[in-house]
Model the fold of this input.
Amino acid sequence: MKLHELQPAEGSKREVKRVGRGPASGQGKTAGKGHKGQKARSGYSRRFGFEGGQMPLQRRLPKRGFNNIFRKEIVTVNVSDLETRFNDGDTVDAAALIAAGLIKKEKDGVKVLGGGELTKKLDVKVQLYSEAAKTKIEAAGGKAEVV
Done:
């Protein structure tokens, strides 16, 4: 195959429809735009959501809900994650969790949840614990301190 022998795939190219070029074309006179009116004019484009002057749907529907400015965003970590990422005797705090890749940011606090098992003795220093997490950490011989 040579460069001059290349052809586009079958059916991928189509003739450009030339409108407004006489009655024989089938697209003469009004060029497929109907008779008069805003949509027949050049440069016509309707903005998103415009309903011809009728009150648009997004303005007819009532607003709902609100954003609570006092909401706290707590990041959660399971006990099983601590088991896999930390060694026996390590101190676990927000900085250590970020370094281990378990959380991205501390936000408004870190909570340890009781999902999974823990066999390593860890000194955990975070803001919140679930009851199950606290008992599992202490059962393994570690400390669960509230910061």
